[in-house]
Write a structure and sequence with these properties.
Strand content: over 45%
Radius of gyration: 13 Å
Number of helices: 0
Structural class: mainly beta
Number of strands: 10
Distance between the termini: 40 Å
Length: 114
């Protein structure tokens, strides 16, 4: 079965950086688009960034220029480098295959303090 395991979250001051990791099992990562999502309390989950199997990247306007999504197919891992963090970036971050309907992982919590 497909497994999505996120890690790397934590508490950080505004302006700081974190790198999130998502280890994917049970699918061929090299042929899949992947994405990062986040969900703040009381709000819907939103798309943050995506990367196609060919390496094309897209970002939400709110994070463009600050976040970078990347992938290492040999390690079955997708990353999200998060720089210049803002309090509005606070939330639980998840990875998944976009619009796949796969079950969500546990996510990793990011808290950005002011």
């Amino acid at each position: 079965q497909v497994q999505l395991v996120e890690s790397g979250g934590g508490l950080v001051q505004a302006g700081g950086s974190l790198r999130l990791s998502c280890v994917v099992s049970g699918i061929s990562l090299s042929v899949m688009s992947m994405a990062w999502y986040r969900q703040a309390p009381g709000k819907q989950r939103e798309l943050v960034a995506s990367i196609t199997n060919g390496g094309t990247r897209t970002y939400a306007d709110s994070v463009k220029g600050r976040f970078t999504i990347s992938r290492d197919n040999a390690k079955n891992t997708v990353y999200l480098q998060m720089n210049s963090l803002k309090p509005e970036d606070t939330g639980v971050y998840y990875c998944n295959v976009p619009r796949s309907g796969l079950a969500w992982g546990q996510g990793t919590q990011v808290i950005v303090s002011s």
